[in-house]
Amino acid sequence: MTLKSLPAWNALEAHFQQIRNTHLRDLFAAGDKESPKRVERFTISGAGLGFDFSKHRIDDKTLPLLIDLARATGVEARRDAMFAGEIVNPTEQRAVLHVALRSHDVNAPFAKEVQAERVKMAVFADKVRNGTWTGHTGKPIRHIVNIGIGGSDLGPKMVTHALHHFADPKLKSYFVSNVDGADLQRVLEQIDPETTLAVIVSKTFTTQETMTNARSLREWFASNGVSEANMAKHFVGVSANTAEVVKFGIAEANVFQMWDWVGGRYSLWSAVGLSIMLSIGPKHFDDLLAGAERMDRHFREAPLERNLPVVMGLLGIWYRNFFGAQSQLVAPYSEAMHFLPSYLQQLEMESNGKSAELDGTMVDYPTAAVIWGEPGTNGQHAFFQMIHQGPTLIPIDFIAVLTAEHPLPNHHDKLLANCFAQSEALMLGRTVEEARKIAGPDRPDLVPHIVFPGNRPSTTIVLDELSPQSLGALIALYEHKVLVQGTIWNVNSFDQWGVELGKILGKVVEADLTADQPVAATKHDSSTTALIAKARAKAGR
Ligand code: F6P
């Protein structure tokens, strides 16, 4: 049976027709008269996170209907298959076991390997952090340069930045991902070859950007007097492809293992998180894993209607597939979580941005929404205008942290006030009568410009504090949301064939850009041929 012919889908479609024009203002007015109030009926918690979804365009019938859809599409079975280590990535014939990386269950799949690698990481991180591991001149390490891209960059960068208040202030972390040399150059200008450790992270160890940056960094060390023998003091590798790491020149003892059953975008819990551990230390890294493991337990055990990843995933389906929302905004009211939206872009869009169903048929419904965002309050002064008054519906995840991680007074109340006020304003809007009063009798022309339609939905995710535990739980929440949605859309959330074609053509174009002879006019389309010719001419070729 196809998704759209399921009785659960049709029931939702019928319900959508009834509720599509209902205003949140009215839902609150009615719901707050009842006991328990609307907010109590539509707030759940799990793994230490609060999840207020009362400002969504749902009534008491909506969630049960969405849960029926989750059941009809086998969300529970897919979840259990993933945790059991079954092949849930069929195109690559792989199990998907990032959850095993944070499990403390000795019977979890690959428990021994995971534990051994974590111990190896911790021993190494302690040596670097306490100065036992030094650079080639005997000085302690002060700069950690993580070189990787996609999942080998975004997760470690996002977490290291978010947990800066747990970092060892003696160690400064840098992340280089872009093949644009400007990225590495910016870092080279800040580091010292005597006190820098490079962590080269690549599951495949063949990724063009990462290998180019890694080679340039090695040349930089060499040009600063570091001999080949001494390079070992300054390079470690993280990969599932030890042979390639060794070929690059990193000793096998300095290779940290990941496995093919960990997808890049789900890998920060593995040795891919070595830069995180170097920054915050093994104990806090363990706490990060423990927070994620707590969310894993919640996902497996909580009833579906009180299950954060399930409810979050279903709300996404509600807007994407019924309201036709094209995007989902993530607004962490936390500067520390600056890189969360870009991390989630890969997590959600690389996972569920697919058109082929598991059996190879093409979907006749939209899949992954465009994920985007910026920390509040910055976004308010940039794009929130459109969310308030544009004709496009954009659901929002507000993320609020109740306590500040810094000592500055007079900031945090303002930050939280903005977060809560935005969700209230987006929900309520401003009516024509209210606008008329504000415009006054002299300016009726202003009225349409200062009316706010409201009825703009949002979730508010509440963290008591920004700690390794709460961040771990938050990341795992989004990971499992992806599984819930991917299951309903019936796509493989764990492969990424879509990035292949660009990579293949990139190699062809690079060869044409750098070849001695100009490229034949018939090899590419006329636009690509002209762009290559322009770049060749500028480079004097
Ligand atoms: O962009 C495709 C991709 O394969 C991502 O899935 C992955 O996170 C990234 O490239 C980096 O890959 P690797 O870790 O193998 O260098």
From TrEMBL:
Enzyme class: isomerase
Keyword annotations from UniProtKB, A to Z: Cytoplasm, Gluconeogenesis, Glycolysis, Isomerase
Compartments in which it is found: Cytoplasm
SUPFAM superfamilies (alphabetical): SIS domain
One Pfam family matching this protein: PGI
Positions of the catalytic residues: 350, 381, 503
Reaction catalysis annotation: alpha-D-glucose 6-phosphate = beta-D-fructose 6-phosphate
GO cellular component: cytosol
UniProt cross-references to InterPro entries, sorted A to Z: G6P_Isomerase (IPR001672), G6P_Isomerase_C (IPR023096), Phosphoglucose_isomerase_CS (IPR018189), SIS_dom_sf (IPR046348), SIS_PGI_1 (IPR035476), SIS_PGI_2 (IPR035482)
Pathway: Carbohydrate biosynthesis; gluconeogenesis; Carbohydrate degradation; glycolysis; D-glyceraldehyde 3-phosphate and glycerone phosphate from D-glucose: step 2/4
Gene Ontology biological process terms from the UniProt entry: gluconeogenesis; glucose 6-phosphate metabolic process; glycolytic process
Main location group: cytoplasm
Stated role: Catalyzes the reversible isomerization of glucose-6-phosphate to fructose-6-phosphate.
Protein family according to the UniProt entry: Belongs to the GPI family.
Name of the protein: Glucose-6-phosphate isomerase
Organism (species): Pararobbsia alpina
UniProt gene name: pgi
